[in-house]
Amino acid sequence: MGKNMRTTIATVFIALTLAGTFSVMSTTAQAQFGTPASTAPASFADLSEKLLPAVVNISSTHKSIEPKDFPDMPHFPPGSPFEDFFEEFMDRRGEGGMPMTPPASLGSGFILDAAQGLIVTNNHVVKDADEVRVTLHDDTTLPAEIIARDDKIDLALLKVKTDKKLTAVKFGDSSKLRVGDWVLAIGNPFGLGGTVTAGIVSAQQRDINAGPYDDFIQTDASINRGNSGGPMFNLAGEVIGINTAIFSPSGGSVGIGFAIPSALAKPVIDQLVKYGRTRRGWLGVRIQAVTEDIAESFGLKGTKGALIASVTHTGPAEIAGIKPGDIVLKFNDKPINEMRELPRLVAETDIDSEATIEFWRDGQMKTAKIKVGELEKAEDEGLLASTDEGEDSGETSGESTLIESVGLSVSSISAQDRETYNIADDIKGVLVTETMPTSEAAEKGLELGDVVVEINQQAVIDPASAKDIISKAAKAGRNSVLLLVNREGDVRFVALRLKK
Length: 500
Fold this sequence. Notes:
Layout: H1 3-33, H2 45-51, E1 55-62, H3 81-93, E2 104-113, E3 118-121, H4 123-126, E4 129-135, E5 141-150, E6 155-159, E7 182-187, E8 195-206, E9 216-219, E10 231-233, E11 239-246, E12 257-261, H5 262-275, E13 281-282, E14 285-289, H6 292-298, E15 306-311, H7 316-319, E16 327-331, E17 334-335, H8 341-347, E18 354-361, E19 364-371, E20 373-374, H9 375-380, E21 401-403, E22 408-411, H10 415-420, E23 430-435, H11 440-443, E24 451-455, E25 458-459, H12 463-475, E26 480-487, E27 490-497
Antiparallel strand pairs: 1-2, 1-4, 2-3, 3-6, 4-5, 5-6, 7-8, 7-10, 8-9, 9-12, 10-11, 11-12, 13-20, 14-15, 15-16, 16-17, 16-18, 18-19, 21-22, 22-23, 23-24, 24-25, 24-26, 26-27
């Protein structure tokens, strides 16, 4: 055997050995990370072909605003060449104002129930619409009726009537999604018609300040204007999200899109189908986040939970004995890691059911049973979380008292102060008259017109009592004090560190 032949055989042997090694490494990596190659499809064509007929394009028109104060036709000498021109112009204008093309909105949706012709989309796609039309995958256009809407989560339910056989899709479980999972978005971007894009789940539980129950799925699948209301599918062809918003400085897709998760949307859609409206649970509380300073003031380790800022008079929480200053840490055995988790858990709880609340009060855990009310009923009745009613003390404002340790000046509340700063007669406390520049009070947003109702959960009667409570806290070695502040009816806790 020649030298060249031996070299060739050795090279092949090494190559095969390395290939086998890489194969083993690849198999080991797949076993370690649980991501076999079969989970990434070679093509989305079969899935897209199956799902496209269930996705619809939605167009809605809105009432045009016609000017009522359009000027009268100017007077011209008989025979003037401008006379005929302006007569024709005014005739075209018609009665009631200049005809205008009604503003239109384009969006997407998907068929949820083929037998009943039920279609799901975003509320903002059809909001204030006079006419809604749905275009099917085969280009058939049908008039649609708005059955029900929910502006808190931005969902709407439509209905069409047709003899055509419709294709429906069903909701999947978005709670099983993981960051990195493949997703498919189908919609009507820029009015182009059925368009398929693919991407992955970029993040979950995003709060983009769109509503009280924000819990969006973030994806890099291309979502543009017109995709709103369209479905986001998993690889099983189930709807695990409803495309709703994009982040885009340019107006086009930059790979940051947001979808309402099916776990949040499905219960709402079920209510819209069953009742024609939503029926959310309600406790009758106003809450705020637990910051590090607030947690320290309450002797709580960590910034978990939802702090009760106020309770509605005769509401479910007050009846159950919940008080301002309580920090809810569990609701029906589910931990509240962030404030925004509580509203969603309560909203999804059955009306009139009994819920268990675990909360932090006076340095220890306590438990209470609460009968869940109905949010929509409370809204109709005008119920708002507020402090207990009481009579005005009739005090008049005097000179401001400086409490230097917190960088705040306060005074008693006069009748003129109540009128000037919109302070209700039943609100007691002291008026903030000034915050020292660069003080923490200024940094935390306290301002002229705010009313300090409590300090360290003790009622504040006058400036002297406010100063005394803070002085005692400093002498006791406390690092901060906790203020309950009322601003035009909105109540919140503010923790201020004490200057040494």
